[in-house]
Amino acid sequence: MLIDINTWIGAWPFRHLEEATVSGLLKRMDRKGIDRAIVAHTGAALYRDPHPANVDLARQIGKHTDRLLPVATLLPQNPGWQEDLRRCHQDLGFVGLRLYPQYHEYRLTDEPALDLIDAAHDCGFVIQVPQRVEDRRTRHPWDVARDLSGGEIIEALRARPKVKWMLLNALGLAAEDLPKEANFLVDISRMTAVLQRNMQRLLDVAGNDKLAFGTGMVFKVADPALLKLEVLDRGKRVREAIAWRNAAKMLGLKVR
């Protein structure tokens, strides 16, 4: 069993993305043995009003909700986000929010952002935060979004420790500084199981329930994440926790 907590569909204005449709993502998942995936719409990161991308994502997923779990994006600065959140929760079948403060120009601990996070948490949503979308060394010159600092992420975890946080594309988070009382998962898409061995460091310091499988498709390919899981020098129980159990628990999924 594999649950990927870090995937996208949709076009990206700065580069061509292969198989960036629902059918393309499902084909990728089938080729790599990935059973379920949390997915967001790339357009939501860049639209002035991201909610139309949420509606489009729900429409595209259609009958594939047995495998694809949609997450929305909303702007805390937008008037009316409360109604958009209600629709995502009650009408569109979303399981969480994916927030991009680096593209939408706010900080996670700004009061409007915390209001949105609190409201989403009350809906039972997970809150996903990519530290970055693309590597800044290879971005288009017009893509000037900052990488979120470890300090900003840790500050948000301390401010809202009960929120179900999923930290995506994250690296450089000092395991010792992550709040022990916080409820979070870090996906393994940028972490290492050899050389720096920061996967092992986080497991040793924060616990076996703090890592989750994530590939970054369709911006990335799945093979590196699969290889990290394979070579990780931990027992079957820990690797299963990373592969799917930790994500399933946070999402409240019933998996046989």
Structural notes for this entry:
This protein is an alpha/beta fold and 256 residues long. Helix content is 36%, strand content 14%. It has a single domain (3-251), classed as Metal-dependent hydrolases (TIM Barrel), CATH 3.20.20. The chain has 9 helices and 8 strands. It is globular and about 50 Å long. The mean pLDDT is 96.
End-to-end Cα distance: 10 Å
Query: What is the arithmetic mean of pLDDT?
Result: 96
Query: Which CATH architecture would you pick?
Result: Alpha-Beta Barrel
According to DSSP, the number of beta strands is 8
Order of helices and strands: EHEHEHEHHEHEEHEHH
Helix coverage percent:
25-40%
How would you concisely characterize the structure shown here?
With 256 residues, the chain is of the alpha/beta class. 36% of the residues lie in helices and 14% in strands. It has helices spanning 22-32, 51-61, 81-90, 101-104, 111-122, 150-159, 198-206, 223-231, 236-251; strands at residues 3-9, 36-41, 68-72, 96-98, 126-130, 165-168, 184-187, 211-212.
Write the layout of secondary structure elements.
Blueprint: E1 3-9, H1 22-32, E2 36-41, H2 51-61, E3 68-72, H3 81-90, E4 96-98, H4 101-104, H5 111-122, E5 126-130, H6 150-159, E6 165-168, E7 184-187, H7 198-206, E8 211-212, H8 223-231, H9 236-251
Parallel strand pairs: 1-2, 2-3, 3-4, 4-5, 5-6, 6-7, 7-8
